[in-house]
């Protein structure tokens, strides 16, 4: 039985890091794997992403604005959620502080922090952000602090992270990172060291790492790909036409696709994963093409979620995409052949049900591989 599977259901995308990573690194699953498999066999349902019973047809508010309009759109009801604080909140916070670990939950001001850290129904979640809490890039949708020369990485972070994860009794974890263009290898060796430390303490722990693009340096991609992880994630973030508008100029659509292609080339057994935010003004044809490009890059898993403006200084939401439209993209993604698709207003890179499914997929592939070797 899986004791814990990494994820964080980020109900509102506050920033780049949330989209790049909300990953669960502290969870306890009280439901058997067999029961969870039944729940997620067909991926997350539309009801997982809607608060209350209000549908988009019943909502009379405005869902789309002209990009030139100064007013911000009001939040539709399906994006409103309660933020409970459970008994695990302070325990998890104290544990992270003791080990000097950073979380995206805090740095990105995620409104889900109470629910995720509170451990509703026995499950507590948090997000470890490696390589510090300061990014060298300035994506226009991201509220994580930035600097040209952040403090050097904590040399104890790989060991402290591994120590925390091994003590929390997990079976699946997701690691994430800020971009570190100031480092010679973009931080690739630090990520690889962290993964190696985790695996040395608990070899059975399934590891997903959500990386940056290492400025297009494929050596960095390969360094992480062969470090021992099972899932290599990197996000294209938005459609190709909006890349320069949404992301830092040092990022790029084709560069991100090449990161994903190279990870798979380096280690074909890896599961690769990417994410798209909707609501920046993209067209249906552009979303369709993005999904096709990801499949052509041999990406296995994809998530689609709603962009939300973190502060007044960041990009305004052009459109609140309806739950029905997200359901449409989930159907399209499955028809294209993705192994897993999570699509909904509240979905983020690591949707909470996704890791159960991906862990199942990994174990199924391992069993199939073992069966083939036995027959040979």
General shape: globular
The SS-based structural class is: alpha/beta
Parts with pLDDT < 50 across at least 5 consecutive residues: 1-54, 121-125
Kindly report how far apart the N and C termini lie. 30 Å
Number of helices: 13
The string of secondary-structure elements, in order, is HHHHHEHEHEHEHHEHEHEH
Radius of gyration: 19 Å
Main sheet specs: 7 strands, parallel
Strand arrangement, major sheet:
1-2-3-4-5-6-7
What's the rounded overall pLDDT mean? 76
Percent helix, as a range, is 25-40%
Question: β content, as a range?
Answer: 5-15%
Number of strands: 7
Structure explained in plain terms:
The protein is an alpha/beta fold and 376 residues long. The chain is 36% helix and 9% strand. The chain contains 13 helices and seven strands. It has helices at 16-21, 33-40, 88-98, 104-107, 113-118, 157-167, 188-201, 218-225, 243-246, 253-266, 284-296, 323-336, 354-375; strands at residues 129-130, 172-177, 206-210, 231-233, 271-278, 301-306, 340-343. Strands 1-2-3-4-5-6-7 form a seven-stranded parallel sheet, with helices on both faces. Helix 8 links the parallel strand 3 and strand 4 (231-233). Helix 6 packs parallel to helix 7 (188-201) and helix 8 crosses helix 10 (253-266). The longest helix has 22 residues, at 354-375. The protein is globular and about 55 Å long. Mean pLDDT is 76; it is low at 1-54 and 121-125.
